[in-house]
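This section describes the prediction task in plain terms. A model, or a person checking by hand, is given the sequence of a single protein chain and must write out its three-dimensional structure as a string of tokens. No templates, partner chains or ligands are provided. The sample shown here is typical of the held-out split.
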Amino acid sequence: MRWGCIDKSSIPLTSAPSHLQPARTGSASPRLTTQLHSLAELFAQLGLPSDESDVKAFVAKRSPLPLDIELWEASFWTPAQASLLRVE
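The expected answer:
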């Protein structure tokens, strides 16, 4: 994921597009189910302030990343945060 490609004014913090939502139980056609998390949940897991305004400020201060840098490689992460981002 590269933040440089994201329109910061429309960062979704709570929900995913309907085609990425988990399938409802009892559905006639099976769909891939995935567990989705919000950016607020990710920021909390990283030990960062996770209110919507905090997330937007973080992104605004640190973007765009150069296109050749993966998100987890950015210099502003602690080693533990970078490790979590790389694994997940």
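For orientation: Confidence is low (pLDDT under 50) at residues 1-10.
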